[in-house]
Records
---
Amino acid sequence: IRHAAGHALRLVEQLRIKRAVFAWPDALGSTAQHSDIVMAVAEGTLLGGYEFDKYVSHTESKFSCQEVALAVRSTTAAAKKALLEAQVISQAVNDARDMQNDNSDDVNPKKIEERAKKIAKDAKIRMTVISGDAAKKAGLNLLQAVGRASPWPPRLIVLEYFGAAKKHAPLAIVGKGITFDTGGVNLKPAHGMLEQMHLDMSGAATVLAVIRLAAQLKLKTNLIAAMPIAENALGGNAYKPGSVYTAQNGTSVEVTNTDAEGRLVLADANAYVAQRYKPTAIIDIATLTGAVLIALGEHHAGLTSNHDDLSNGLFNSSRTTGELIWPLPLTADYRAEVKGKKSDLVNAVLSKSARADAIQAAAFLERFAGEYPFALIDMAGTSMRSYKRGYTPEGGTGFGVRLLLDYIKQNPHGPKAKGWGSRGLGRYGR
Ligand code: BES
Ligand code: ZN
Ligand code: ZN
């Protein structure tokens, strides 16, 4: 229904229709609640109408429909609430898409901090930023290493929303915020999707939108959103392959590839939130690996977790929201592969071939999530699209916002404590 509504809106705009009415047969209601259908039509319309045309000057291609009315059989309170909620959610998703799509020089680490500050102020969310000497003191050495060749220093932005009683530990969502990924000294090849790499901060855009929505919708949940922000730039000061750095939790990491920078910045952020907040679980969301794009294309994100209840909850939310994810295994064989020779861990297993790299990245990141259930959503394929389809635009899609929001609504206090995975086969087990 979402896809149909998004497609319909595009047709309406192609026909240059300013005001339209969308109606649908009652039969649609046979398998879903009336309010769910209203929500899906509204979301599909509002998300499908998105276009990033900030830099387009030929006005003949610019047209936006001004008003869509939904013809419903009954305007129940639930349907009205669904419509309002669809508007709030779609606005946040479209804002995330804007942040993804704009130039990396404009959406640089400093500008992301400014945007986050404004959103936090409007939604009354507490925000802290750790950078410079404070980052050094906090031991965020991996984040520092990745971001040090950029004119805009790296930083860890942490947002806190407490909408439930303090006795409930918060859930932590952590989004990769690389404002541009050159690959560093292991420079990306010309065909390495370089012109897409301003989208490498998509995870940060997603978690920022999610916490904003949790506050706007006054969800009775406790939530931490952490955004490690850095530009993986080139320069005389850039971090180098073969160097060993010590992460926030004391784990030493040999940088075997400077292009595997996402897991480095996420590692420090995970370790920081694990130590500071003792969360119910840590969910990383990131444009992390080319490998997941090869495995699943642009239609499913990869889900790797060591905890079945967390993993199943995310999977169910993916089915509800249409932001699809698919599970990958996480077992001792992969965990063994990320161990180092001159360090505890290596950030990339093979310099040329990226075999099971999406899983190896999760095996690496898990080591920084302390004793807490951990999941990685690798959305390298789904957060940036090469063509429009249904309600998803070309370019930044805002993937994960509705998925994580639904997970939080269904599991306001995180996953069940018991549930260490049979799929993941335990935390460090086989
Ligand atoms: N940002 C990239 C992953 C990516 C690739 C996102 C294509 C979207 C589209 C990430 O930082 C990266 O470069 N990963 C490397 C890891 C490898 C060196 C182990 C990759 O996937 O090649
Ligand atoms: Zn990279
Ligand atoms: Zn990257």
---
Amino acid sequence: MTRRRRRLLGFAIIAVLAGLLPPVLMLTLSHRIAERNAVETLDGYAAVLQNRALEVFRSGEATLSEMAQRIDRNCTDNSVQELRKAVYRSLYFREAGLVYGQALQCTSEQVFDPPIPIANPDHLVMPADGIHIAAPQITLEGEVSIVLLYRVTDGIAVNLLLNPQHLTEPLLGAVNAEHVRLVIERSDGILLAQFGATGTDDVIRASSQPPGYPVRVIVSASRAWMMRDWARNLRGFFGIGLLLSLPIFLLLKRVERREQTMDVQIRDALEAGELRVHYQPIHSIDGLRVVGVEALMRWQHPRRGLILPGAFIPVAEENGFILPLTHWLMRTVCTEMAALLDRHPDLYLALNLSPRHFADPELPQLIRNIFAAPFAAGRLVFEVTERELMDSRTQTASDVMDLLRRDGSRVALDDFGTGYSSLQYLAQFKFDLLKIDKAFVDAIGTESVTAGLVDDMVAMSKRLGMKAVAEGVETAAQLHYLQQLGIEYVQGWYFSEALPLDQLETYLARHANPR
Ligand code: C2E
Ligand code: CA
Ligand code: CA
């Protein structure tokens, strides 16, 4: 896949992510909100049910306890009168009765003779304390009732028949009977009252326990009920989601750009043709003619402007991409400079090499291939720093340098004096030129301890039969000092910065001796 394709694919992924992410997020969020709303509504229903249950059972308990105090222990007129009063006092209760000898003796309606035996033991429970809530059952009137029992004394109890509908009554008009289910049951799971849907897809539940009574209230609803609420709000949420898409898209794009490492950016720059070569003139000290130019790479970034090699060459050296970069540089220089070198036969061209090139025995052949046609290899100087030699395998580096020199190229030791063991390299490798680092030129005329070192370096280069170039000459005073020392070449902003080809041509027209 080409880099452009990969970029397009990355862009597409970001667009899809930005387009999908906010609506999906909104969908999830609105679902959560709908679910929470639903639970809250059901909690509300449960609270209403619990209050009603409390009210009904408390009222039942109060009525029964009062009845128990006033009633006779058999079915006297007074007893029947009390049973009647109890029923009239509240709308919740259908009937009241007196139980003993495991039989119903009389009710608010009539006295039974003989009494009616009660078969269901649940309807005979006489609690030591408070009321017993017995399971609903069809009672004498042919209707389902919940029976509340209260102990009068051993073996004697009063009871009240409660219509279960009273328990759910306050919610009957409020809940959606199709989807919501209300249940009141005893703690042992016996159903007391229910209302609404009986479907099995209930997903949301709320429950509560009326304090003091062994019952619980359970409210549940189907997924469909919740979804209806959700669907109502969804359109608004979708709108917000889409509005968020744009900023998210921009954010993701930004992140992607950051993520794109310098590594990838350099590759892209090479492919997109954003790299340039600038040429810095090198002057002879006598007469200050231009004798050579050093090719220096530049990156013309579409947004960030001109980027100097210090920002990208080290990364390229690190990851090996320096090899294609240098190949590109050589081909470009070869094409750009052919005419100029032809017009200025004394001009040499200096190129910087990296350690990786010196570990590559193919390098001389590559250089031969590139530079063979337009101009002879004899016009080339290859600049190497000590660091490069240190990093490469010494034997290969030495062989490569020999081959280059056999082809007529020269080799310069760059940034001389900045490495660990400059002198050792001078003994080990054969250099044609010594480039004295800018740091030593800067020190000229200062109090710095390195101020005098440039003198020694020039003297040494002469002893070893090399020519010296002073780098980074910025002032007339520095130039004057170097002239006194008898150095051969100077390079620096005092003369010129590295120039693009067209400006170099103008510069050469003024400072070199064309053919
Ligand atoms: P270098 O080989 O030592 O190149 C000289 C550097 O000093 C250049 O910086 C040049 O612009 C700068 N310079 C020259 N005269 C002056 C001056 O008077 N004052 C100051 N302050 N600076 C001056 P540049 O172009 O930024 O290059 C930096 C380094 O990047 C180079 O140092 C070289 O090591 C590396 N480089 C540049 N182009 C290439 C390339 O094509 N291949 C390789 N392998 N390295 C390169
Ligand atoms: Ca250099
Ligand atoms: Ca240098």
---
Amino acid sequence: MQTIRGRLAVGYAVALGATIFIFAAIIYYVQGSQAFAELDIRVRVESELIAAILIESYRARDTVVVRDPQTGGLVLTPDVASLLEGVPGYVLIVGQRRTLIHLSADARALPFGSAQALIDVAESPDTTGRFGLVNLAAPVGPVRYYVRPITDAGTQVTAVVSGTPTSGFVVSPPRLLTAMLWTAPFVIAASIFIGYLLVGRTLRPVNQIVDEVEAITDGRSLHRRLAEPDTQDELGRLSGTLNAMLARLERSFATLRRFTADASHELKTPLTVLRSGIERSITHPETPNDVMAMLEETLFEVNRMAELVDSLLTLARADEGRAPLHLDEVDLREILSEVAETASILGEQAGVDVEVDVPRDPVHMRVDRSRVRQLLMNLLTNAIKYTAAGGNVWINSTFEDGRVVLTVRDAGIGIAPGDLANIFDRFWRADPARSRTGARPGAGLGLAISKWIAEAHGGSIEVQSRPGRGTTFTVTLPVGRDQEPT
Ligand code: ADP
């Protein structure tokens, strides 16, 4: 169960199922004990009635039993027997030495085994008045009985047993279970459905909050706030707390950005001074050779630092929204020609063959010329940097659906699939060990800046790569306004 909604709906259903079960068990218990109490009264009253008939008959006639001419055993006199025929249920009259002298019509109609079970009750040596339960074969089932001792109807009659099946009074566990099994699925399905709807309604504001927070925390909307409901319930407090947190986050981000921008800005001037000083010393005719070599190394590092400070300043200003684009009507061919020029120099140095495909017809776009050039140069220097000598790099442009698609493709070392998701992150490098020196120096900011430039123009940048086979960066830029390339 992935959602709270699903879990709560199932929780409701389980709770309802357990409630139904406990409720049914209590009903069964209460109904059963009440039914048994009624049954006890009934069998007792019946046995008292029979005892009264026998006692009265004995008083009137001096005897209630006669010897059966056929079997030779004792039986009730015909008039008493006919009086008792009217009494419903199982009636057994016991004589001396626990012998049976009368069986009611219902008892006689029982199958042999069941009749015998009743007779065993009647012939039991326990002659005290008592209730009991005897199990007869189906369809009769359990029978509640009462044994009433008789002392005033002559010595030949000792007790009467009166019994009634419980089936008409008590709901049996199987019947209750069947009823539950039939009704429970409907009740539980209804509860899941209603629970699901109710929880959905209850959680709707939570989902709203999640959506809003998602939209806000995309990094650029920290100034936005959640709508706070009027109620001061848990969700109202949650929105309030999240808003306070967003305000704190916004303040810290702003401080951080300001600090980076200020620090980068402050570093720019001393770096420029340092650079021009070193350059002057290098060109001085009296500088000894070993000092010259050291100064060249220092100049290389100072240049790298200046580039890094520049990149940091660009990103910090972009984050602050203080890096406006200087949009101009530009022919893409001009930018591509400039890039091609630098590319041929860089390619030559690295032994990489760079092919820049400059379109024959003009492609008019409304873009920030220097930023787009910076974007292409970032991709191009990377392509050359990560391609071994003797390899190739291609730059192409096509026009699709009002957008210009620029591709920078190389047949270099490629990027591992697991790294693709990170390459646009700031300061991320696949091989951080070689970031400072070595064949591929860099700080890991180039692609972050390229992504910002593409997105600031309303475009996008994507990468496809196969390790050992090469990498392709695809930049899509809108032409700007309603223009079509001519
Ligand atoms: P860097 O200054 O390190 O080149 P980038 O942001 O330009 O910084 O690139 C980040 C990382 O992405 C690089 O360190 C490199 O691992 C990987 N990368 C970028 N372009 C390519 C490419 N064309 N081929 C292989 N790896 C690349």
---
Amino acid sequence: MKNIILIGMPGCGKTTIGIELSKRLGLSFFDCDAEIIRAQGKPVSQIFEEYGEQYFRHLESETIQKLPTNDYVISTGGGAVEKSENIDALRKNGTVVFINRPVDRISEDIDTSNRPLLKNDASKLAALYERRINLYKSACHIEIENIGTFDDILQKIINEVKING
Ligand code: S3P
């Protein structure tokens, strides 16, 4: 089966949804941030602190260029769409699904202290969403609004991928 690639804001549910989706579809799961953490042997926040965002973006692009080709659900970091070469690679690699969760819901859900770009300041989320929303919308093949129950979202993705994937 073609890969299913999840994009969207930090805290929109990509990893949680991706893990469960992969189980339901009998696919493997790959998390781009987890791969960077594994390869570097340190958390993303530490990579940002020690080497800066540009270096993290370089690692992120390298990871995206080397993604597995089939039979995976892939969760990307929220900033993966910031580079057009990443978007091209993701679209070639599978069906790109934008998990669109309203910012106020994300703020209720997440702890911003370990998210380098939010730095304990949830108000930064809204600015980031505004800056990225058009990128997410143009990068995706399918957009799913994440406002229902967990089960609803999974079912919506499975149905849409069957029709449009
Ligand atoms: C980032 C999102 C993070 C992580 C890094 C940068 C971003 O991933 O890749 O902190 O630019 O939005 P999540 O979207 O999984 O939180």
